[in-house]
Write a structure and sequence with these properties.
The chain is α/β, with parallel strands linked by helices. Helix content is about 45%, strand content about 15%. An 8-stranded mixed sheet has the order 2-9-8-7-6-3-4-5, with helices on both faces. It is globular. The chain binds pyridoxal-5'-phosphate (PLP). The site of pyridoxal-5'-phosphate has 13 residues, from α4. Keywords: Aminotransferase, Pyridoxal phosphate, Transferase. InterPro entries: Aminotransferase_I/II_large, AspAT/PAT-like, PyrdxlP-dep_Trfase, PyrdxlP-dep_Trfase_major, PyrdxlP-dep_Trfase_small. This is Aminotransferase.
């Protein structure tokens, strides 16, 4: 019998299941627990806006649902070229865009299009855990570079330099970042770009949270490239509708790259996906052409929640920093004298003590071992109760 591939699986689901199990056990004993406060999920707690849902319904009712182009329909790629100019500050043509199954599908297709088995890929520590199984599927060797908690979780170029070998093929960056909420300033982006150029690397920029930004600006590295360098070069931008428009379950995102590179990525998409279904692409088009107030409203509520959490952590005397984007923050949960039970044990103890779920930091990388991640995709009330429970248990 052939061996199955073992891929690294993140812990998020099992913790939610553990909370459910405790709930069931309590019910069996005749106890009533308050419902779990779930702060571990990286998913907007908003419904997809009505006009977006309606566009999919209209497509199903009125359009013939044939196969479509693997790159996505031209009308959507036209709209996306406008969005890239408006939000990300660089100019592309529809031929530079491929519609993917969320950012997830965009990253995997890009890796499969560019990486040879044994190539080394630089990824941040901490990072979104799915990078690891994706790199494994592509046959790549992940090499981590640290994001520095003492420096608001920004990368340090000297440390990146130490990780480069002749086999390094790609630098992956993620700003606004999950799990940190860090937003790389323009200068840092320029340095990262220069680093990738110096070592002739692909630069894969995961910009899935590009429109969830609280202050400052989101700088797309591609906006710092000349058109020629973008076309000849090795830049790959990863984007999604999931976060900006609360469309996680719809599974639609897009990749932006030079024309030749996009063509290869489309070949990969063609081989594993054929196309994203037309009603979903119609919904995405409606998201882009419809009113953008929903984007602003969601962002502002994440901001209020971020402010509340930062304020509360300061009041409790906990380590805190100010996440400038995305909708997460890492909380250091070591005791007053630096003693640490590790994020995973803390997360389990927290469920038992208060029925609050958080994600252990080590799921995102070794650096965040003493941290837990909370998501701001919860109500202010839940966040206030959750952060209080975290601080009390940590003390
Ligand atoms: N990149 C990062 C950093 C993420 O946090 C996520 C989702 O949580 C994704 C990519 C992929 O999201 P999706 O596939 O829903 O677009």
């Amino acid at each position: 019998k052939p061996e199955l591939h073992e891929l690294p699986v993140p812990d998020i689901v099992s913790l939610g299941a553990y909370a459910d199990q405790l709930q069931r056990e309590a019910e069996a004993r005749g106890e009533v627990l308050p419902p779990p406060i779930r702060l571990q999920i990286g998913e907007p707690n908003f419904r997809t806006p009505e006009h977006i849902r309606q566009a999919a319904i209209e497509s199903i009712a009125s359009e013939v649902q044939t196969y479509g182009p693997a790159s996505g329909w031209p009308w959507l790629r036209e709209l996306l070229a406008e969005k890239i100019a408006r939000v990300n500050g660089y100019t592309v043509q529809p031929a530079n865009i491929a519609i993917s199954m969320g950012g997830t599908g965009g990253i995997l297709s890009s890796l499969l299009a560019t990486i040879n088995p044994g190539d080394e890929v630089l990824i941040p520590n901490p990072c979104w855990p799915i990078y690891l199984p994706q790199l494994q599927i592509a046959g790549a060797i992940p090499v981590t570079y640290p994001l520095d908690p003492a420096n608001e979780w920004l990368p340090v170029i000297e440390q990146l330099e130490q990780q480069v070998t002749p086999r390094t093929r790609m630098l992956m960056i993620n700003s606004p970042g999950n799990p940190t909420g860090a937003v790389f300033p323009r200068q840092v982006m320029a340095e990262l770009l220069a680093f990738a150029r110096r070592h002739d690397l692909y630069l894969l920029s995961d910009e899935c949270y590009d429109q969830i930004i609280f202050e400052g600006e989101h700088v797309s590295p591609a906006s710092l490239l000349s058109r020629k360098e973008f076309e000849d070069g090795r830049f790959i931008g990863i984007y999604t509708f999931s976060k900006t428009y609360a469309m996680t379950g719809w599974r639609i995102g897009y990749v932006v790259a030079g024309t030749r590179l996009t063509k290869t990525i489309v070949d990969v998409l063609n081989a594993n996906l054929t196309n994203i279904s037309t009603p979903i692409q119609r919904a995405a088009a409606a998201a882009l052409t419809g009113p953008q107030d929903c984007v602003v409203e969601m962002r502002e509520s994440y901001r209020r929640r971020r402010d509340l959490v930062v304020r509360q952590l300061k009041e409790f005397g906990r380590y805190s920093y100010t996440p400038h984007g995305a909708f997460y923050t890492l909380i250091n949960v070591s005791g007053r004298h630096g003693e640490s039970r590790g994020g995973r044990q803390f997360a389990l103890d927290l469920i038992s003590a208060s029925n609050v779920t958080v994600t252990p930091g080590q799921g995102f990388g070794t650096i965040s071992d003493e941290y837990v991640r909370i998501s701001l995709a919860a109500s202010e009330e839940e966040l206030a109760l959750g952060v209080k429970a975290i601080c009390q248990l940590a003390d």
